[in-house]
Amino acid sequence: MIYDKHIFICTNQRAPGASRKSCGETHGMGIVDAFKKKLKDLDLPIKLRAQKSGCLDICDFGQTLVVYPEGVFYVGIELSDVDEIINEHIINNRIVERLRLENVREKKSK
């Protein structure tokens, strides 16, 4: 394994007028930049990478990212969530349940 934690942040942009929204249209690159800056500033003693990705195909839930090796998908991400994801998931290995895809999907279906 090259990285202890690898964060892929969707920055996909759909064509104008597309029927589905996309992460890149909201604030995909802003989220990427925020993760990169915060992780660099923290200079953690583990191998990390945060990078942009193409479509993760769960756009209906808002801005999306996935953290590997766990394969945890977070949805509806705002810039204000970056610190919490880093502090909880990346540093302390605790999943941020309120943003986890499975939990958001369950709440939407009720």
Q: How would you summarize what this structure contains?
A:
The chain is α+β, with helices and mostly antiparallel strands and 110 residues long. The protein has helices at 23-26, 28-42, 82-91, 101-109; strands spanning 5-10, 48-53, 64-68, 72-75. It has a four-stranded mixed beta sheet with strand order 2-1-3-4.
Offer a few descriptive terms.
four-stranded mixed sheet; 35% helix; alpha+beta; 4 helices; 110 residues; Glutaredoxin; single chain; 4 strands
Walk me through the structure.
The protein has 110 residues and is an alpha+beta fold. It has a single domain (5-109), classed as 3-Layer(aba) Sandwich (Glutaredoxin). It contains four helices and four strands, in the order βααβββαα. The chain has helices at 23-26, 28-42, 82-91, 101-109; strands at 5-10, 48-53, 64-68, 72-75. A four-stranded mixed beta sheet has the order 2-1-3-4. The longest helix is centred in the N-terminal third of the chain and has 15 residues, at 28-42. The N and C termini lie far apart (39 Å).
Q: Give the overall shape, derived from the CA principal axes.
A: globular
Structural class: alpha+beta
What is the CATH C level class, in words? Alpha Beta
Supply the number of structural domains. 1
